[in-house]
Design brief:
By secondary structure, the chain is α+β, with helices and mostly antiparallel strands. The N and C termini lie far apart (60 Å). Helices cover 50% and strands 9% of the residues.
């Protein structure tokens, strides 16, 4: 069935599968190392409380059937182990049906995590990983050439990611149309990286060129994915270069990396294909049936893209089979940060010994230079950025965070870079204050060594002791 497969893309499939397995591995490691404080039985948003009020049909998950912290850890580490096996190429050593089942395992496990992850897993790249991972199940292994329809659907995802992001910008903040958004974005993005300060200080004319190039890459280039080679490969390569530029400019979890993975599937590498047998009939039937289903379900993302009320990052089914994507439809002009402090004083006063908690990724100490964490996702740090935008974003979990800090909870403290209190001497009171942050100038950096300058804005949370924190949570 030559019409069904594209043997010229056998190396593209191999590179795509290994890269996707690497992203899966990072995602499962992120879940395994952070879940206790975020979602565990004593987490800020406990899974048992969630599954007690949300039915299985709305959030299908293994954890709807059973939950314990140990079971979650087993699932997360099992997902990491399977991802590592796929990265090593185990699927190529198995029969076709077994390889498909092996690729199905990380998808099922990660779906189970995302569907109970609540606020912590409300990011577009979670659905993007699941949608891409589901298609990977049907891409085959060394027993068959890559199916044309699956390769097309992978490009269809990439098209929706880029084109949807481009449309949301044109319809959103006026600074995208004026080409001025990058005057602010590198300073106000959720979690800056080690080079973000330098990106911010690039000449403004270059920022205009960057925004214009972004519009071309997201609104014109995606259409070229569906043209003959080598144009399609050139379009995918340009997208990869753009995403690598974004990798350098900030910490966006694995959003850029999964987009690169999708683009890899559209590249046709100059390598002669090995002799591959024809696709078995059962495989053809399964792949075509799945493709028909996904194309039918795609009408909702398409309707969303052409709508004037386009929304970002929405899944249209509980299995995350088809989704809509987009990022930074609006750009903040000013950066605010919530700074959490504690004191051991029995009676908190303004002149008490207030000690600041330091987070791993989000700005805190003005002299602490940002680090590169992506593709690893610091979920608490990201949500602290949202909390600074509005207390409404933190209403479900901030009180629980304060309570855990007052208890010196070990799992919660592991999410931080530094706690100012010894393990056996928790603070008596916690407070939070809102600061405005801005990047220092070149002169200020040379004089002070600080990359940030911060100014107190207002009180975010008054001094709170343990009993009060429990009431808030």
């Amino acid at each position: 069935m030559d019409w069904f497969t594209a043997s010229d893309y056998w190396l593209s499939r191999l590179v795509f599968q290994r890269a996707l397995a690497a992203v899966y591995l990072v995602a499962f490691l992120t879940a395994a190392l952070q879940f206790r404080a975020l979602l565990g039985s004593r987490g800020m948003l406990p899974i048992p409380r969630f599954v007690a009020r949300v039915p299985f049909r709305r959030a299908p998950s293994l954890f709807q059937l059973h939950y314990s912290d140990r079971f979650f850890a087993c699932c997360a580490w099992a997902g990491a182990a399977v991802s590592a096996a796929l990265l090593a190429g185990l699927d190529g050593l198995l029969p076709l049906w077994a390889a498909m089942l092996l690729w199905l395992v990380p998808w099922l496990l990660y779906l189970s995590i995302v569907n109970v992850g609540q606020t912590w897993y409300g990011f577009g790249w979670e659905s993007l990983l699941l949608e891409t991972g589901f298609l990977a199940v049907f891409l085959g292994n060394d027993e068959v050439a890559p199916p044309v329809v699956v390769l097309f659907l992978l490009r269809w995802i990439l098209f929706r990611v880029e084109f949807g992001a481009g449309l949301i910008k044109l319809r959103g903040d006026a600074c995208w149309r004026k080409l001025t958004c990058l005057d602010y974005h590198h300073e106000t993005q959720p979690m800056p990286g080690p080079l973000s300060w330098f990106f911010h200080h690039l000449p403004k004319p270059l920022h205009r060129v960057e925004v214009a190039a972004n519009h071309v890459t997201q609104l014109a280039v995606p259409v070229l994915l569906f043209t003959p080679q080598p144009v399609a490969s050139a379009a995918a390569a340009l997208m990869i270069v753009t995403q690598l530029w974004l990798v350098l400019s900030g910490n966006f979890s694995w959003l850029n990396w999964i987009t690169i993975v999708l683009a890899l599937s559209a590249l046709r590498f100059p390598a002669d294909p090995p002799p591959l047998p024809g696709a078995p009939l059962w495989y053809v039937v399964v792949v075509l049936a799945v493709a028909a289903l996904l194309l039918f379900l795609s009408y909702r993302p398409v309707a969303n893209m052409i709508s004037r009320r386009q929304i970002m990052n929405r899944s249209f089914d509980p299995l995350h089979l088809v989704n809509t994507y987009g990022a930074f439809g609006s750009v903040s002009r000013v950066r605010y940060e919530v700074v959490i402090e504690g004191t051991a004083d029995a009676l908190p006063r303004e002149d008490s010994d207030w000690r600041e908690y330091e987070f791993k990724g989000k700005p805190g100490d003005p002299r602490h230079w940002p680090r590169q964490f992506a593709p690893y996702h610091l979920r608490l740090d990201w949500m602290m950025w949202f909390a600074a935008l509005s207390p409404a974003y933190a209403g479900s979990w901030f009180g629980a965070l304060v309570e855990r800090l007052l208890e010196n909870d070990r799992a919660t403290l592991k999410l931080l870079r530094r706690s100012p209190f010894p393990p056996d001497e928790p603070p008596r009171h916690i407070r939070a204050r809102l600061f405005r942050y801005r990047y220092t100038s070149w002169r200020e950096l040379r004089e002070t060594g600080a990359c940030w300058e911060r100014t107190y804005v207002r009180e975010y949370l008054p001094p709170t002791r343990l009993a009060e924190a429990v009431q808030r949570s």
